[in-house]
Amino acid sequence: MSVNVNQSETASLDVVGIGNAIVDIVATAEDNLLQEQGIIKGAMNLIDQDRADALYDVMGPAIERSGGSAGNTMAGIASLGGRGGYIGKVRDDQFGQVFRHDIRAAGVKYDTLPATEGPSTARCLIFVTPDAERSMNTYLGACVNLTVADIDEKMIASAQVTYMEGYLWDPEEAKKAFILAAEIAHAAGRKVALTLSDSFCVARHRESFLDLVKNHVDILFANEEETMALFEVDNFDTALQKVRACCSVAALTRSEKGSVICCGDEVHVIDAEPVDHVVDTTGAGDLYAAGFLFGYTNGYSLYDSGRIGSIAAAEVISHFGARPEKSLATLIGEKFK
């Protein structure tokens, strides 16, 4: 596919995310239900559709909302007052309608056509026990069937940054879609960002991830473990020096140690934002990326963009769920007075 875009057009979006379109289904449950259903407490298990249907039938009243790593990031950008778009594959079924409605209601532009055949919409069934443990059961379904045909050239070209989710790097067709999106973005004079997503994901795809980062990525997001896994080193300082040679900007998170942002000779160390009580770390990296990308595309310095990322991450780990419960725009306004 040829890439033909007009570099002179002003960006109408701050960020467009590409990732696994998953519906999160969250319900409370007693420990005996987990035991009866053979659910490993506190773990994330990949399941098939029959298992997903069976678990859904035994769940209590649930909250159903759009999820997935890049989806969480885009919801965070919208909460900050940013302009975001999303590309991800669902099926034309009940959960596909839930995903479509929810992400749009969050303020994110979403126009990817649903599949009319094949696997049903991806979902993550999350059982929360009284001790606050989250046991996740994920059926990937339609989301892994993203192809080059789903890449919206106009949306990519209209965004300052295209943000890609490493979890989606498994299928070959999705790899092609990522490369095409990066080519469209760069042809339009835009930037490309990637999150490595998971150290196990890095271990599976280390060589191809390195090639992607070196040749197609301007902004890399990774945590400490993922960064070390990418370069096969056993300490963060060595990994930091190696990542600086690979891409223009790297935003590396270190949990309670905060984050490090490097750009050429610049290195910024940002403290973690204080949290009274950490409830659930799900989505911390997703929301850090949201905060950083919002700052980056709205004229903030690298240091202040990292601060916004830390503030967004702190909000999401103070409650259950991977989406902000408070207006991040209001929080940032208070913090930056």
Automatic annotation (TrEMBL):
UniProt domain Carbohydrate kinase PfkB: residue ranges: 65-324
GO terms, molecular function: kinase activity
SUPFAM superfamilies, alphabetized: Ribokinase-like (SSF53613)
Keywords assigned by UniProt, alphabetized: Kinase, Transferase
Transferase in keyword set: yes
PROSITE patterns according to UniProt: PFKB_KINASES_2 (PS00584)
Ribosomal protein is among the record's keywords: no
Family named by the database record: Belongs to the carbohydrate kinase PfkB family.
PANTHER family: CARBOHYDRATE KINASE PFKB DOMAIN-CONTAINING PROTEIN (PTHR43320:SF3), SUGAR KINASE (PTHR43320)
Protein name: Adenosine kinase
